[in-house]
Design goal:
By secondary structure, the protein is an alpha/beta fold. The chain contains five helices and eight strands; from the N terminus they run E-H-E-H-E-H-E-H-E-E-E-E-H. Strands 1, 2, 3, 4, 5 and 6 form a six-stranded parallel beta sheet that branches. Strands 7-8 form a two-stranded antiparallel sheet. The two termini are about 25 Å apart. Belongs to the azoreductase type 2 family.
Length: about 190
Amino acid sequence: MVKIGIITGSTRQGRVNTQVAEWVKSIADKRTDAEYELVDIKDYNLPPFNEPVPAIMSQDYQAPEAKVWSKKIDELDGFVFITPEYNKAITSSLKDAIDYLYPEWNNKAAGIVGYGSTLGVTAANNLRLALSVPKVAVVGTQPGLSLFTDFQDMSVFNPAPYHEATINTMLDEVVTWSTALKTVREKTAVEV
């Protein structure tokens, strides 16, 4: 069985990101096709990315927080990123969390749930691009939530019921791709 991490994309005070992540986890918990875990990037206390060399060149992380983050991402087979849209992009904390690592992301699958005034579409597309370099395969179904219709006063998450079907479709794809890519990682490990 594959392990899927539902990763928060914001660390700011008063964030609604955890409400969305917990909702996705509640839908995932009704399923029996994978192990699902909420992974809050705020818990890892990652400093702004400032390693002496990029992770693609060395996994000798200087920041002790990066070592703990590396272990967590390495043990997961796939991801669901919950990303708000800030100025038409992902948050700097999410970008830093991605940039700290490289091989830990390789040959894994991800789904993206975006939210914002325009459904988080631009941030989700920005995240797709950021994940392409560390070789994360992003699935096609991309749920988008509106700050105007899926949140009360832009602060209390209250999603429209039809979103659950889209979340399940995305989870189907993430589990299928994560399962397939696990065999790729296993084959690569044997060859090395």
